[in-house]
Amino acid sequence: MTNDLKKPQLRAIQYFYADGSFEFGFGLLCLLLAIYFYIEMHMQGLLSVLVDSSLILVMIGGAWLINRLIKSLKERLTWPRTGYLAYTRQHGLKRGWRLALGMIVGGLVAAVVAVLVTNPNIHVAAMPLLSGLLLGLVLVILGWRAKLPRFHLLAGLSAVVGVALAYSRMENIVALAAYYLAFSLVLFATGACVLRAYLRQNPPPAKAPDEH
Q1: Which of 64, 87, 92, 142 has CA atoms 20 to 30 A from the CA of 49?
Q2: Which residue has the higher pLDDT, 116 or 147?
Q3: First-to-final CA distance of the chain
Q4: Is the pLDDT assigned to residue 10 strictly greater than 80?
Q5: pLDDT in tens, 53-99
Q6: What is the band of 1 on the pLDDT scale with cuts at 50, 70, 90?
Q7: Is 125 helix (H, G, I), strand (E, B) or coil?
């Protein structure tokens, strides 16, 4: 009975990621961060302080923009083809357990990066390494939860790009901007492939003939 109940839940989760809108939204956030860090490395003095303090606003605005983009894509392409599905928000112990797991994983990744950075024989740019590993772990969790192998592939690419840029001998902020730009392109390309497959499998419904 438990497995029978989990199957509809799994299908509902997979339906959210079926059209590539998540990749487009996530890719847009990465692109915004790439632009932000590119601007930051060219700012000096008071302007640099203002840009640094605006990161939280960029994240909040980016999250809002992502939600709008995903909703718009689903309204135009997904829901007319395969229907609308409402998702309930999780509360209580289940939500708290996931938040705790995320904090533990993030702490472990930060500890690994700290060891690498403080080792005098290893010269790495910490920020792209940390970003690549953290986003990779987020994607691994998503792939495990949704049973979608493409997220595991994206996780591996995130880690590879982060590690490569960490050892590229670029400045920390330059490598960080390069990471988010590169990974945004990866996400856009993946989203385009997923969307193309979805549109091919789900053509638009035929319009009813006009009786008048």
Answers
A1: 64
A2: 147
A3: 51
A4: yes
A5: 666 777 787 788 888 888 888 888 888 888 766 655 555 555 555 55
A6: very low
A7: coil
| Count of structural domains, the chain | 1
Tell me the per-residue pLDDT of 150-197, one tens digit each, with 9 for 90 and over.
999 999 999 999 999 998 888 888 898 999 999 999 999 999 999 999
In a domain, 110, yes or no: yes
Indicate the Cα dihedral angle 42, 46, 51, 55, nearest 10°. 140
Domain that holds residue 190: 8-201
Burial label for 10, CB within 10 Å (0-12, 13-18, 19+), is middle
d(CA 143, CA 125) in angstroms, rounded, equals 27
**CA 139, 14, 97: angle at the middle one, nearest 5?**
55
Residue 207 falls inside a structural domain: no
Domain annotation covers residue 212: no
Name the DSSP class of 124.
Answer: -
Residue pair 188/23 in contact (Cβ under 8 Å)? The answer is yes
CA distances from 112 to 109, 121, 125, 155, 183 (A): 5, 15, 13, 17, 22
64 and 32 Cβ atoms separated by less than 8 Å: no
Please tell me the distance from the alpha carbon of residue 82 to that of residue 79, in angstroms, as a whole number: 5
- Of the candidates 139, 142, 140, 131, the one whose C-alpha atom is nearest the C-alpha of residue 109 is 131
